[in-house]
Specification:
CATH topology: Amino acid/polyamine transporter I
Strand content: under 5%
CATH architecture: Up-down Bundle
Structural class: mainly alpha
Number of strands: 2
Helix content: over 70%
Oligomer: single chain
CATH class: Mainly Alpha
CATH superfamily: Amino acid/polyamine transporter I
Length: 424
């Protein structure tokens, strides 16, 4: 019998999923887009995550299944071409998230140990960490869980310490004026900034996969989702505030890929920079570890539901074959794409997936005893956010948008080919 998960463990899954490598990877990007309004950008993205978590709560209680999002989409739309395409997108979005974490690791690691030059070091470290995490996943799933549980504590202790010291360091800091409304970007740009970095919040959906094992589900599932999302919204807003108030915009732009470590410098000097760098490496490594496992499970569930070839349920060295495919695809994306394109593609993927989960909540509102208005609002807001993100990024990051759209299209084409050949 599986040991039941308590509220604290369920929250740790949600917080660990969100505060994976996301904040370390995208904070600099958020500042470059929203400037002094960065805390507001994080708030926008967080509110969208919180509204979406309502549909997840209702669906997790009614349909507790380790397939999580995959099962919810199938429940709402049957095992169709549409649900298959969306579930394929979920798998690809996991791969994009993994690439984002690997990129963050590759950006932070050379600050501790530089070998040749920044570009070569980046590719070496990003590739090394994917290979190491893959080897650990093949060696033992138990080790993956152990690393994740310790990493959640370490990264939270370091981030909370950074906040405490950072707030103290803001007193009398001349850069504090950067947070004034005069330095905010236009509201539409703040919203775009929030949506580009929306990937920093997507991890709460991992609670859905643990739903069958959560004790007292009617009480603990809603708490696990809401408490973890609200905690992370507050955490991100304060981190963004401390960062923008500590460093001049110019320095933030220079250190865009490792800005959190740079923000610790004015207060704690080189020691602070090193501690945050280590926290970033632990966080991104643990996120890669957990997401590799999650990604391989998603591919297994999709093929088990006959939305991808059944070969994906077969095993390679005691793990689903999807683990190796996920790792290889991550290696390619992390080494080919720039951080902003990866982040945009990931946000597009998850905004679309969350829109569909909200629509499922709306469609099944009677069955799940949910509020139609909240689920429909979530669906509508996800679509609006997606539209704003795509139109704004078309002017500044066309490549990222083209890649994101191509990925979405490809997911449906693959499903169509599989369904067509399966029916013959």
């Amino acid at each position: 019998m599986t040991k039941k998960i308590g509220l604290k463990e369920a929250m740790a899954i949600g917080i660990g999923g969100m505060v994976g490598g996301g904040i370390f990877a995208v904070l600099g990007l958020a500042v470059s887009l929203a400037q002094g309004g960065t805390p507001i950008a994080f708030l926008f993205a967080g509110v969208l995550a919180l509204i979406t978590s309502y549909s997840y709560v209702k669906l997790s209680i009614t349909f507790p299944d380790r397939g999580g999002t995959v099962k919810f989409v199938n429940q709402g739309f049957g095992k169709s071409l549409f649900s298959g395409g969306i579930n394929n997108l979920l798998w690809i979005s996991y791969i994009i998230m993994l690439s984002l974490y690997a990129s963050a690791f590759g950006s932070y690691a050379p600050n501790l140990l530089s070998m040749i030059d920044k570009s070569t070091d980046f590719h070496f470290y990003a590739s090394f960490i994917i290979i190491l995490a893959t080897a650990i996943n093949y060696y033992s799933i138990k080790v993956v869980g152990m690393i994740e549980s310790y990493a959640v504590i370490i990264k939270l202790v370091i981030l909370l310490s950074f906040i405490v010291v950072g707030i103290y360091g803001l007193i009398g800091n001349p850069n504090l004026s950067q947070l004034s409304i005069a330095n905010w970007e236009a509201p539409i740009k703040l919203l775009t900034g929030g949506m580009v970095i929306f990937v920093a919040y997507e991890g709460f959906e991992l609670i859905a996969n643990a739903a069958p094992d959560i004790e007292n589900p009617a009480k603990n599932i809603p708490r696990a989702y809401y408490y973890s999302v609200i905690f992370v919204i507050m955490l991100y807003i304060i981190i963004a505030t401390v960062t923008v108030g500590s460093l001049p915009f110019k320095e933030i732009a220079t250190a865009e890929d490792y800005v959190l470590a740079e923000a610790a410098k004015p207060i704690l000097g080189k020691v602070g920079f090193t501690i945050i760098t280590i926290a970033a490496l632990i966080s991104t490594f643990s996120a890669i570890n957990a997401s590799l496992y999650g990604g391989s499970r998603v591919s297994y569930e999709i093929s088990e539901d006959d939305e991808l070839p059944h070969h994906l349920t077969s095993k390679l060295w005691n793990q689903p074959i999807g683990l190796m495919i996920t790792a290889i695809a991550t290696l390619i994306i992390a080494n080919l794409l720039k951080l902003e394109s990866i982040s945009t593609a990931g946000s597009v993927g998850f905004l679309l997936i969350f829109a569909i989960v909200n629509l499922t909540g709306f469609k099944l509102s009677n069955e799940i005893k949910g509020n139609k208005i909240i689920s429909f609002l979530g669906f509508l807001l996800c679509l609006i956010a997606l539209g704003i993100l795509v139109s704004q990024q078309m002017t500044t990051n066309k490549t990222g948008v083209i890649i994101a759209m191509s990925i979405v299209g490809l997911c449906f084409i693959i499903e169509w080919i599989y369904k067509k050949n399966g029916d013959e």
